[in-house]
Each structure stands twice: as C-alpha cells, then as structure tokens.
Amino acid sequence: MIIGTRGSDLALAQATTIERMLAERGVKTSRKIIKTTGDTFTDRPLHEVAGVGAFVRELDDRMLEGDVDIAVHSMKDMPTVRPERLSTSAVIKRDSPCDVLLTIDGSKLEELPENAIIGTTSMRRRAQLLRYRPDLEVHDLRGNINTRIRKLEEGQYDGILLAEAGLQRMNWDLDVQRLDPKHFCPSANQGTIAVVTLAGSEAEKVTSALDDRRTRIETAVERIVVTPVEGGCTAPVGSFTHFINDSELHVLAEVLSLDGTEQVRIDEVIPAENYEEHARKLGMELVELGGKELVQRAVCQLGKRV
Ligand SMILES: NCc1[nH]cc(CCC(=O)O)c1CC(=O)O
C-alpha cells in the first residue's frame, strides 16, 4: 500500500512511525511524498497563505484520486469537516500534548528578562504567553521546526515556543521547559498522529488496528468543545482533554483575546459515557460565556494586521 506524506522532516518522521507499526503487523508499504500549499510559501504567516487545512487538503485530493492509500497527518492540522469518502481510520496513542519553551541560554519562562523576545506565529501561544508574562515581546516566527530552531540559534529571539511532540518525533533531545497545560492549554489534538484512508477500503481495515480508543475519545471531545466558537486554526483557542481514570475525562478549553488580557474558560470533569453529549454542552457553555465574540474580534484584528 502507498503511504502519502508531506516532505518535511516532521511529516517524514510521522510517516516512518506508521510504516513501522504496519510493518510489525506484516503490512508492506511504500512512500509517496506530496508537496502542499502550506509547504510552498514558508516565508509568510500560515494564516495568509492557505487558511485552514492547507497541509491536509492536497493529500486528501490525491487520496480521492486514488494516488495514495494511506495518509499520515498531524491531527491538529486537520480541519474538523472532512471529505465524506475519507475515514480517519486510526488515531494513534498521543505523544506529549504540551507546548515547550526553548531558550538560547536555557532560561525558564520565569527567569527571562523583561521585554525578552519570544518567537511564535501561533495566536494561541502568543495570547497565552502574554497572559503569563505581559512584559514579553512576541515576534512572528514561521517555518517548520528545523527553520524555527535555526532562527533561534541565529540570535533573532531569546526563546521560541514549540509543540513537544514535534521534538520527540524528530528525536531531538533539547533542554526545553515543558509548559503546564493549565496556563498553556494546547491546540485541539496537539501531539496526535491521525491515519486517513478511503472509507470502506482494505487500507481502512488494516490501519484501524493502530487506533487508540482513549486518544480517539480525548481528541473527539477537544474538537466538539471548541467547534461552536471555532474561527479556524488561527484563532487564540486552546482545547485539551484527557482521561483522569477509566470513566472520567478532564476538559480544559479556552478562548483568549490576542493580547491575553481577556479569556473565557471551561475547566470541568465529564463522564466518558456519552462524552459527545457532554462535550457539546460544554461547547455551548463556551459560547454563552462570550467565547464566540472573542474569536470574532481576534479574527477581525488579524485581518487588519495582514
Ligand atoms: N502547526 C504545525 C504543527 N503541526 C503539528 C506540530 C507538532 C506535532 C503535533 O502537535 O502533533 C506542529 C509544530 C508545532 O506546533 O510546533
């Protein structure tokens, strides 16, 4: 079977993980590298280039055309609405969901000097960082993980924010500070690899053996809770859910203003039974608390920045 993947180091590492898991089950695969719009314009902020799903849409198209059998994605980059004929056949057991801070000199977030410059293009990370340390300066930093680390080393920033899962997958053992999800609530589905196939295909059957039930439920709740306020992947929205025991989930979700001075937040424990219904209720709560207005304002302000 043919595995389609983007060509970035992170995407290739993720594809390798899935290839290994399938090989262990006796499934032979070959690899096809697909270039996406998000990969082509790496010098501009992602929200200017292609919008939601830039990394995913082209692989979807190639699958629908029959060019690839299996696609591997960072699940957090997948749009919520999916083509009907495609199936998310496996949600792989989650790696670290957390963000990390990587600094030039090993400083922790609390130790950075006033007005230190931190690089990130994520509006969520910017807002959460400013909420925690309003004195810091946040500068844009676009590019894949390699590029971002290179720009840090070149001295343009005192520190940068990254997903820990990305570093883990690249096997980079860097001295980072893991940020507490309480203050740095991750993006929905951060740290999770998803496998996509055609619905009803042999590939779907084979890859579904890789599915992790708990991660599937956690990631589903994360999506459902923020769907009613969602302004695309560019809005300052965090959503993180995890099992705290066999029957309960802790749900953390929030919307922030771009400058981090305003927030709307959900912090609840729900039963795993009927999780969809509970998650939908929390999503409505987020709207009632004013989450939608916050997202709309942020999207408006972003439009003016561009
Ligand atoms: N936005 C790009 C992206 N998509 C997935 C990851 C990392 C791996 C993951 O979260 O699963 C990253 C890099 C980052 O956010 O630093």
UniProtKB/TrEMBL annotation:
Question: Porphobilinogen deaminase C-terminal domain location, by residue?
Answer: 220-286
Q: Which UniProt keywords apply?
A: Porphyrin biosynthesis, Transferase
Q: Per the record, what are the reactions this protein catalyses?
A: 4 porphobilinogen + H2O = hydroxymethylbilane + 4 NH4(+)
Quote the PROSITE patterns the UniProt record gives: PORPHOBILINOGEN_DEAM
What domain of life is recorded for the organism?
Answer: Archaea
Q: Does the keyword Membrane apply?
A: no
| Any one GO CC term of the record | cytoplasm
The family database entries (Gene3D superfamilies) matched by this protein are listed as: Periplasmic binding protein-like II, Porphobilinogen deaminase, C-terminal domain
- Porphobilinogen deaminase N-terminal domain: which residues? 2-202
Q: Which GO terms describe its molecular function?
A: hydroxymethylbilane synthase activity
GO biological process terms held by the UniProt record: protoporphyrinogen IX biosynthetic process
Tell me which residues bear S-(dipyrrolylmethanemethyl)cysteine.
C233
The EC number on file is 2.5.1.61
Q: Any keyword rRNA-binding?
A: no
User: Which SUPFAM superfamilies does this entry report, sorted A to Z?
Assistant: Periplasmic binding protein-like II (SSF53850), Porphobilinogen deaminase (hydroxymethylbilane synthase), C-terminal domain (SSF54782)
Entry's cofactor comment: Binds 1 dipyrromethane group covalently.
Question: Which Pfam family, just one, is annotated for this protein?
Answer: Porphobil_deamC
The prosthetic group or cofactor this protein requires is: dipyrromethane
Q: What else is known?
A: The porphobilinogen subunits are added to the dipyrromethane group.
Similarity-based family: Belongs to the HMBS family.
According to its UniProt entry, what is the function of this protein? Tetrapolymerization of the monopyrrole PBG into the hydroxymethylbilane pre-uroporphyrinogen in several discrete steps.
Name this polypeptide is given = Probable porphobilinogen deaminase
Q: Which organism is it from?
A: Methanolobus chelungpuianus
